[in-house]
Design brief:
- Keywords: NADP.
- This is Alcohol dehydrogenase catalytic domain-containing protein.
- It comes from Bacterioplanoides pacificum.
- The protein has 320 residues and is α/β, with parallel strands linked by helices.
- The protein has 2 domains: 2-125 and 257-317, Alpha-Beta Complex (Quinone Oxidoreductase, Chain A, domain 1), CATH 3.90.180.10; 128-253, Rossmann fold (3-Layer(aba) Sandwich), CATH 3.40.50.720.
- It has helices at 42-49, 119-122, 126-139, 155-166, 178-186, 215-223, 242-246, 258-262, 266-281, 298-306; strands at residues 2-7, 16-21, 30-39, 64-72, 84-88, 102-106, 110-112, 147-150, 171-175, 190-193, 205-210, 224-232, 250-253, 291-294, 314-317.
- The strands form 3 sheets. Strands 3, 4, 5, 6, 7, 14 and 15 form a 7-stranded mixed β-sheet that branches. Strands 10-9-8-11-12-13 form a 6-stranded parallel β-sheet.
């Protein structure tokens, strides 16, 4: 048994209650970790509310996790007992959840955490960084492209900016207010407020990443150049695709949780995180700082997000 925060039924934040679960037996290719922290992501609220019907059988949320390996299954050769690790490794069907004292994970989804960061701060990285990485891969970015990130100051947007800049790509971005606009400009991003991005480049952008969906995705289609590629992390809506047709655009929908749900493509996630750890420790990428809370604050964190009051990335330390 291990203590955990359990979704007793779908609904509001109050349905998450402390309790105990039976931890799954360790299988080949898996590791057991003692959880240090769980990263909060907006998808957690959708799963909790039943809007995304992909909760695991234990009812434990938490996709992003950091912790210490305490047991290793057969066939795992890149991790060992005592390793500090991080990954987007659960919180959905077919897996455990990070809002617990211990968690059994597919080792392919994990990598050694950056040594230059606290283990708690590492829990803020995986889902948003992997999403940005997959989007840039699908867009096939080159140094000659003009990349626009709509919502560049958000969780996924910040990582898209950092990963693109590491490869020497000129990044343009949008922000929702003057404070975030100034932050982007300080990071070397050619930025504008959302309504003004079309004026940044004459003729439109070769590659566009939308990190919101809805009106932001419609804007992405409008500012894309002919034959451009557009990626979105939220395609769940009804859209007018006229601009996509008349410009012959290529559209990519990014759903980074798919490998967790299907089992296909998991190893690529762990490999990316291993490379990212090396880049962070080498000083090539500066990691955005996350606010640290306790797991017992989880309901309040969900309420704050749904009220639009959560301004920064949050990690929840395992203090059940």
């Amino acid at each position: 048994m291990t203590r955990a925060w359990i979704v007793t039924q779908t609904g509001g934040p109050e349905v998450m209650q402390p309790g105990e679960i039976v931890l799954a037996e360790l299988q080949p290719g898996e590791v057991k970790i003692r959880v240090c922290a769980a990263g909060f992501n907006p998808v957690d609220t959708k799963i909790r509310a039943g809007l995304a019907p992909i909760i695991n059988t234990a009812g434990v949320l938490g996709c992003d996790v950091s912790g210490e390996v305490i047991a290793v299954g057969n066939g795992v050769d890149h991790l060992a007992v005592g390793d500090a690790v991080y990954g987007c490794a659960g919180g959905v069907k077919g897996s455990g959840g990070a809002l617990a004292e211990e968690m059994v994970c597919d080792a392919d989804l994990l990598a050694r955490a950056p040594q230059s960061l606290s283990l708690a701060q590492a829990a803020a990285i995986p889902l948003v960084a992997i999403t940005a990485f997959e989007a840039l891969q699908r867009l096939v970015i080159s140094s000659e492209d003009k990349l626009l990130v709509l919502g560049a100051s958000g969780g996924v947007g910040q990582w898209a900016v950092r990963l693109a800049q590491k490869e020497g790509i000129a990044v343009y971005g949008s922000a929702g207010n003057d404070e975030r606009l100034a932050q982007l400009q300080q990071q070397g991003v050619t930025a504008a407020l959302h309504d003004d991005v079309a004026a940044l480049v004459n003729g439109g952008f070769d590659k566009v990443l939308d990190t919101f969906g809805g009106d932001s995705f419609q804007q992405a289609l409008s500012v894309a150049a002919p034959y451009a590629q557009v990626a979105t992390i939220n395609a769940r809506n009804t859209y007018d695709l006229t601009q996509a047709h008349v410009k012959s655009l290529t559209i990519h929908a990014i759903f980074m949780l798919l490998p967790l749900l299907t089992g296909n493509g998991r190893k690529a996630h762990g490999e990316f995180l291993a490379e990212l750890s090396d880049s962070i420790d080498a000083g090539l990428i500066q990691v955005p700082e996350a606010d640290e809370k306790r797991m017992s604050d989880v309901a309040g964190i969900h309420r704050a997000y749904e009220a639009g009051e959560l301004k920064n990335k949050v990690v929840m330390k395992a203090e059940l």
